[in-house]
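COURSE: Structural Biology Practicum
ASSIGNMENT: Worksheet 4, Part C
STUDENT ID: 0417
INSTRUCTIONS: Below are two proteins. For each, the amino acid sequence is given first, followed by its C-alpha cell string. Answer the questions at the end about the second protein only.

PROTEIN I
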Amino acid sequence: MPQIPSLPLNDGHSLPALGFGLWQVPGADTARVVEQALGLGYRLIDGAAIYGNEEGLGEGLRRSGLPREAVFVTTKCWNTDQGFDAALRAFDASLARIGLDRIDLYLIHWPCPQQGLFVDTWRALIRLRDEGRVTSIGVSNFHAAHLQRLVAETGVTPAVNQIELHPRLQQVTLRDSNRRLGIVTQSWSPLGRGRSFDAPVIRDIAARLGRSPAQVILRWHLDIGCSVIPRSTRLAGLAENLALSDFALTAGDLAALATLDAGERMGPDPDLFA
C-alpha cells in the first residue's frame, strides 16, 4: 500500500497530499471508481454537489469496507446555494446524499463576487465547523483579495484553497499568498487536460526517470507543496496516478518545469464566474 504524505492544516488537522477527484465522473460509475481507488490506497475523495455524484461517493465509501475515519471526504457548496441559510441547507442536502454525519472538508466552490454573498456563506461554514458537522472548512477558486476579505470580516482563515493549477497555469503569486496565510493550496485539473504532456522538458524528465508525463506532473505538484486531486475512471489510470512515491524530481527539473508557465487558464475566471 503506498504511503501518502499528509499536509498540516492551519486548524490543527491534516489532509492527504494526494487524492482523487470526482469531477466529470458519471454518476453510474462513481461508486465503482471510489471503491477501486480506496482499494488501491487513496484516502482522499474530492466531490461537490454540482458534480451530481455524491450518492455514488457515499456508496463507494460504504462498499470499500474502510472505517469512516480512514477516509478524508471533501464536498463543496455550489454558486446557487450561496448565502448563510442557503449554504446550511445545501450542506444538509450533501450530507444526506453522501450518507454521512460529518464531512472532513467543506468548500465554497467559487467566490461569485458579483453575488456579494461569499462572506455570509463563509459564516455558515464557520457555524458548521463549530457544530462539529465539518472538521475543516475552506474555499475553492478564491483570489487573494477574496481571501483577505474573508479573514478581515470573520477572523477565520480558510484551511484550503483549491485552485486550477497545472504546468501552464502555475499560480505562483496566489500560492505565495496562500502560504503567507497558512492556507494549503490544492490543485484541480492538475494535468492540464494533458496539454503539457508533449512539452520537451516533460518528455525528457519522463524518459530519464522511466515515468509517464502524468506522473512527472503529479510529482511536481507534490514537490511544490500542493495537495493534488487527479481524476481517472480507469483502474490503470488510478494506479498510475498513485505511483509517485518511489522517484524524485531534482532542483533542475523543478526549475525547468517552471518555464512552462504560460498563464493559460482553462476554467473560468474566478472574478467573473457566477
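PROTEIN II
(use this one for the questions)
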Amino acid sequence: MENRKRKIAILGSTGSIGRQAVDVVIRYPELFEVELLAANSNFRLLAEQASLTDANNAVICKEELYDEAQPLFSAGNTKLFSGMESVCHLLEDSDIDIVLASMVGFSGLKPAVSALKSGKTVAIANKEILVSAGETVMRLSRKHSAALIPVDSEHSAIFQCLQGAFGSRADELIITASGGPFRKNTLEEMRSVTPEQALKHPRWKMGEKVTIDSATLMNKGFEVIEARWLFGIPQEKIKVVVHPESIIHSMVRFEDGAVLAQMGAPDMRIPIQYALTYPLRRPSPCERLDFSSIGRLTFEEPDTERFPALDTAYRALACGGNACCIMSSADEQAVKAFIEGKIPFTAIHEVIEEALETVPFIREPDLDAIYETDRLAKTKALEIIDKIKK
C-alpha cells in the first residue's frame, strides 16, 4: 500500500455495512483518512462516527434534519452538509481514493455514478446499483478508469479466488447461500411468517432489507445479476448452491475442472477490510475458523418452488433492458410493506411478478430511463400492495 493514507468516503455509514466499515477504519488510523460520512437520517450516530473518525465532512441526506443535527457537529472539525446533491458534489470535487457504496436500495445509484464519473474507486456493497443499472455502471467504470471492488461476501470471495488464479479464465461461478431462516419450512408455513421471524437470519448480522431478501432468496438473485456484471460471465455459467454453514462464501471453477473456494467466518468486516486495503491484507480481530470443530460442510440445490425469486432474477437478467430495475424497485417497496405488516411474506414475490408484467419494458435504457423506471415500478408496487391489503 502507498505510504500516504487512503482517503475514504463511507456512504450509508449508519447502516449495517457502514457501521462495520467505521470499525475497520478506526482500527487503522495510520492507513485511512475519512473524507466523508453520509447517512440518511440517523444524525446522532453520524455525529458519533464523525467524532470517532475525525471525518472531514458529513452529510445528512434528509435535508429537513440539518438544523436539528448541526449542534452535534459544532464542537468538532467535521463540516456538516445536507441532501444527496451535497454527497454527489463532495464525491466529485474531493480527492477521495475509495468510496464505500453501502446506502440501502436504489438511493445508492446516484452517488455511485458521481463517484465513477470522477474516476474514484468504488467498493460496492449496495446490490441495487448493479442490479438496476449494471450495464451503464460498468460502462462508466471502463470509460473513467474507475475500479469497482466487490464488498458482498460472495462477490469478494469470487474476486479473491480470481486474484489467486493468475489470469486463468473462470469457467463457472458458484455462489453460496445459507438458505435463510425458512430453508426447511413448507410453503404453507411461510405464508404466516412474521417480520420478526424473517429478520432472524441464522448466520449473518445484516440490515433489514438484505435480511428479508435473504429469506426470500431474492438476495441470491441479486447476487447472480451482480456477478454477471462484475466478472463479465454469462448468466448460464453462474450457479447458486445452498450451503447452510456459511463457511464457503463462494467458489470459482476453472476450465481445467479445478475449483477454488474462499472460506472464513461469517463476518462482513473481512470483505469490507479487504476492499479498503486491497491488494494487501491486514490483521483482523475476526474469528478464525477451527476446522476440527466445523464437523462437515453440506450443499444442496435451491428450491425454486418455495423460493421463486431466484428464478425470477434469472429471467429478468435474461430479458435485459430495465427488467432488473423493475424487479429490484418493486422488491424494495414490497419488502418495506412486509416489514410494516401490510402484506404477507409470500406476497413479496407476487408484487414483483405483477410489476414485471405491467411496468413498461425498455430494451436499451439510459440513466434517465432507469431513474424513471424506478419511479414507475415503485408506484406500481404500491398499487399492487394496496390491492393485496384489501
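ANSWER KEY EXCERPT:
Q1: The mean pLDDT is 95.
Q2: DSSP finds 17 helices and eleven strands in the chain.
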